[in-house]
TrEMBL record:
The lineage of its organism: Eukaryota, Viridiplantae, Streptophyta, Embryophyta, Tracheophyta. Pfam families: LOR (PF04525). It comes from Lupinus angustifolius (Narrow-leaved blue lupine). Belongs to the LOR family. It comes from the Eukaryota. This is Protein LURP-one-related 15.
Amino acid sequence: MQKKSLSVNQNGIISPQYCAPYAVDLAIVRKVMTLVDSFTVTNVNGKTVFNVKGSLMSLHDHRVLLDATGKPVVTIRRKMMSVHDRWQAFKGESTELKDLIFTVKRSSIFQLKTKLDVFLANNTKEDVCDFKVKGSWFERSCVVYAGESLTIVAQMHKKHTVQSIAFGKDNFMVTVYPNFDHAFIVSLILILDEINQDAREAAQN
């Protein structure tokens, strides 16, 4: 299973154009003092790589990752009535099963720290996950592993700046390892954020 996953990685899970033969550092800026939380993803030179679209009404069950030109790359949708907080990612703006790229679910229902299992669309049995996400969104720290192995494909960590505090922005960095799809990693981070939003709202109620 892991060999199969790693061969897919070389070609790009979402698209080969989002793979590089070297490690890619991305900065993610999340505006947290607006009616609609917004994400902008830039490279180390400050050039926009991705944006996220989501209206106030649909924010918690539907988000679209856009490239720098505004073209839809991935649509992320929460699967309703699922026990493990199940999320699905589709090509472009589609939500049809034929365009499914991957599915994400919690490893277990009750967790102190987030653990997510990721299954590619062709892994229909879901006996073994293709990727695993471990970490804490509140600490802005997480690691993405290939399958059940200790092979790391991406890491996220908090970036503290004076500007981020003053302007109500939440900045963090993501390092995507060589030959790995950074659009896929950004999609996983969006799902992590959604799960965090749900947890925060539950704590307030």
